[in-house]
Amino acid sequence: MHKMLVEKEVQPHRRSGLMTYRPKMAKKLLRKSPSSSNKFNSANMTDDFQLHLDSSDDDAPEEVTFEESKASALRSMKNALETSKREKDLLKEKRRKRQELFQEQKKRRLLPAHILEEIDTAPAKKQKLPGDQAESNHEEASCSWEEGREGSKEGYEKETKKGFKGNIRSLKGNYSVMRVADQSSTNSQQQTAMDFIQARLYGPGSQRTTNNELLSLENKRGPNKSAAMQFVNKKWGTEKKAKAEKLKKQWIQKQKVPSS
Amino acid sequence: MGEFKVHRVRFFDYMPTAIRAMAFNAHTERLALGRMDGSVEIFNFADHYFQEKVIPGKDSRSIEALCWVGGRLFSAGLNGEITEYDLENLRPKYSLEAYGGPIWTITSNSQGAHLAIGCEDGTVKLFEVLEESIQFERNLDRQKGRIISLSWHPSGTQIAAGMMDMIRVFDVPTGRAVQRLLVDRGFGGSKSRETVVWSVVFLSDCTIISGDSAGKVQVWDGHTGTLVKTHLVTKWDVLALSVSKDESSVVVGTSEGTVIQFQFIAPTLQQQQDKEWVRTRTFKNHTHDVRALAEIETAIVSGGMDTQLVVRPLLEKFDERSHASALRKIQFPHRNLVFCAKKAGLLLFQFPGQLELWRLGESDGHGKPGDSLPLKRKPEKLLHLKRKGEDHICCSALSSCGGWLAYSTMSSVRLYRLQTDNNDISITKVPKLPKILRSAHQLCFSSDSSKLFAASSQSSVLVIALSQSECKYVHTLKPKSGSRQPIHLMTNSVDGKWLATANSDCEIHVYNVQKLKLHCIVPVYGSCPSAMGIHPTTNNLTMVHADQQIFEYSIVEKQYTDWSRKLQKQGLHNLWLDRDTPVTHVTFNPKNPEQILLHDMHMFCIIDQSLPLPDQKTQFYNQMTLRSLSEQERPSHLHAFKICKTFQDLLSVSLLDDQSLVMVERPLLAITSQLPAPVRQKKFAT
Description:
The complex is a heterodimer. Chain A is built from 11 helices and no strands. Chain A is mainly α. The N and C termini of chain A lie far apart (102 Å). The N terminus of chain A is likely disordered. By secondary structure, chain B is mostly beta strands. Chain B has 5 helices and 55 strands. Chains A and B meet through helix 8 and helix 9 of A and helix 5 of B.
């Protein structure tokens, strides 16, 4: 193709006026195969430009045989196939390497094999413990039958603890051990009601103050006016006063140290 | 008269519980008071506001409202249960689960046939009142919000329910909600919060009066569902409402501690003026929120978070200013919470949740009257005994030698043996108590610690013999009158021969302990006895009643003594009778058999029987005057009642064997300092 283009461009350059048609050239053009690789093209182009600069346009173009062009086409196809194959191979390699890395990491996280075996042999006990706790967390506290149940649950705990002597392993899910008797017997509805009334009377927006202020106001407005409660009553707010004393001593110490 | 070394005890951290609900029974003139810890107290308003009965609380019980149906008392609380109380055995009869979630209010209709409760889930449940129990009848239409307050129309056909942001009126026969009255929200910041209608009252002319959390008291027309008048009474919540029997006056309690009265009167004196609800009086008798209110015929009774019960008589109902028209504040319980082991110098403090045993301090010094002596050894707490189980402690006792300790709850009695070796104290529980000893209303040890007396049901007394470390049931002492009321006072003689009991029917029985039978019954006096004591040598029973009358009865001779007859003939001094707190403890001085020592909350008195009785004209509180008189003038001015007011807020006074007095004080200021937070009020110039 390229040769054809070159030829056509040359012609109007050389003849500023009319264009003449050379049938001979056309035949030759048809027979010629397009050049295959870029390298050859560029080389051809420079050569061609040099040619048309140097030589006259009466020279016949170079002859490229059919076999040559066929070979170059085949070569280019083979190259394309090879590159695609190479790319595929590269990807495969990458994937394999990543997989290996994961395997190694997984191996590192797992415990050594013998401990796994030990755990696998005692699955029954482990299953019971979460189930038991889940049940007990739902029980109502008013049942008197619980005392016996508590005793048996504690028995269970002791057994499982013996089994797991040297191993701390977190159980799946969130379980915590607590006695039913330690929980208060107020159920959630009662707790919500108590929270409601507490929030309405003492919660935010209720504008409450302290008993200290109430009594101090009484002192200040009463018939015998006196100071606020914490000053009048020696026993009022003893913790706060002790804390204030301590801070005062510390401050005095600090003042002494830089001066000395 | 004598000088006494006084152990002034202030380490009893007695903390009363806030009042949550009250209900007045006009027929029997009893006021039932429900406190936040679940305890119920019954006050007899016909007998000088005496605290007749106390039903101890329980951890799981909560009381939000009380109501009387005839002579039966019902309560409902946040644990979702309706409880009926057995007032003869001082325990709950039964508890019925209402299955509506926490219950906020309970109220009965005027016919006494139905109870209505307001539940958290928005239902108003009706219960039928049967002979021995109650039975669920039906639900009214279920609403979307919680039902905070209820009020029956006097005819029993309509109920007004106060909810969040609205009031609903239900038609009882059909169960439908017929009216919806929308309550405005507050101003400013509280616009975002829902208004809670804390209480409603339904009057017979279909007027509804409501108090809500925005501080408004609103008057509505129940027929048309429209608002007639709004009164903004406070910046904080209006928590309680109560209407008088003749529906002419409504009192309102607020978070500030004020009680405001509205009356249905014509606002001006012009003729043909329509009556309307006008704000008339404001009382500020409380420092903290007023949560329970009742208007009885002649007075307004209020109680709240500051734990005091205040009875404010309405002055227009009285013809003249008298003792009956004065303000009454009931702050301390009318029974003993402090027990003293006289020989061992130990004090037992009874709390609802535990018992504390203290040893008193010692001092060697001498000084003039009024001096503070230095302590050689400080008082120390020997024992802190927590109760077992949910029921609160009902009563307790300590033997005078300090070797035995007992307490009782509603479900069990526990007996302990104490051993003190120098500074160590060891306590061992006595394991097997007689099965008949399930619970006791009062406990008392004999003076030689050989017997335990337990007051049981129907005014009977169980006698338990105590030996080294075990006990055996001996006998049940039964009264002849067959009274079913519980015993609230028990005392025994020093020589171990006599036991006297007093019950809520004002009956006093004296039993012969050695023969184990009833000896005599003291003639019944109209007022309930509040304190009793048997003299160590003469075996005279001294009784002080709730109306401040004093009697002395000779047990051996089975008749009143001469001194008692003389006292009754002369009559007690007016200032003695005008005291508003009852005497809770009577004790004697072994060294001086003429003396009787008594105390109430504000004074300590020694009655000297050898001195003349004062008449109405004598100066009653004459101790200060006597001190200023010379030796020669004094004898002519002396009289029998020597009263000392140095020690205030007294819980107990006892005399130890070494002639020193123990005064247990609980300053009211210390109680106020531990109350929950009051509202912040801005006062001018502070």
